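Possible regression after last week's pipeline update?

I re-ran a chain I had predicted before the update to compare outputs. Posting the input and the new output here so someone can diff against the archived version. Not blocking, just want to make sure nothing changed silently.
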Amino acid sequence: MPSDKARYGRFDELREYNLYVLHSILEDAVKPGTHTANEKKVGTFYTSCMDEKAIDAKGIQPIEPWLKKVAAINNKQQVLDLMAEMQAKGLRPSFGFGTAPDLHNSMLNIAEVDQGGLTLADRDYYLKPDAKVVEVRAKYVQHIQKMLTLTGEASEHAEKDAKTILVLETKIAEASMDRVARRDPKNRDHKMTVAELGKQAPEIDLPRYFKLEGSKKFDSLNVGNPDFFKKFSALLASEPIENWKTYLSWSILKSSAPLLSKPFVDENFEFQGKYLSGQKELEARWKRCTLLTDNSLGEALGPLYVAKVFPKEAKRAWTLLWLP
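New output (post-update):
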């Protein structure tokens, strides 16, 4: 088992091989000389990611605009508005929203919403009384506290906020369907109109949320877990605004931690990588930056990959192989 892996099988081996191929493409893209538009794009992105000195110097600065938006919230509608804005940027603080195949007609893609909002991988981490799971929850609170103190919070205040986050996420977990129930597709098949879902979740202004998220207008969608939205709507009404603000600040921080300065990266790895997953050491920065470039600019990096590993000669040989 490689020390920078939590698991290692044949597909992980293929991923590792591809990382080396993509890395060689990116290294060529940053060398002096004439480059295509795609090479310039991925090269610039990769170089920025690799500039650890500049990233460390900025500390928490990259997410300060988001944290200021949270601090400015003074009503529940603004909580939802910021959730929608975060959703549009891929932060997903509350529930899942996107496009999925219609479960009754796979030729169609439709809008879909589903449960979400948890940091730990499964609802059982929040709810089971097993000794190991209780330990995970305690470690999670300690982790949140450490992360918040890195942002400048006083230790006592960070401890209080960490406990608030665990309590709120536990309530969200209680509203969530368990893993076994979700394995049955019928339990995730609830096509309805936006208006019908709105009646079940009156605290969520869905048309406004979807508009702020940036989606085109639609009338119907699949709801993976209607009961979740009923209970989440009730939570929005019952939980104090300050608790939601604490939760949103944590959502921003935890999502951004792998991209921030070294103290945040290290603490995030200590809990998520080492403690929860058993990974002995963090992947080398070039691997993380290569993967991030691929995930963020795949449409630009993809053609460069094809040109390297599947040139015209390979295409010709492949075609001849399949000729009758």
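Follow-up from reviewer: compared with the archived run. Residues 1-59+283-317 form one domain. Marking as no regression found.
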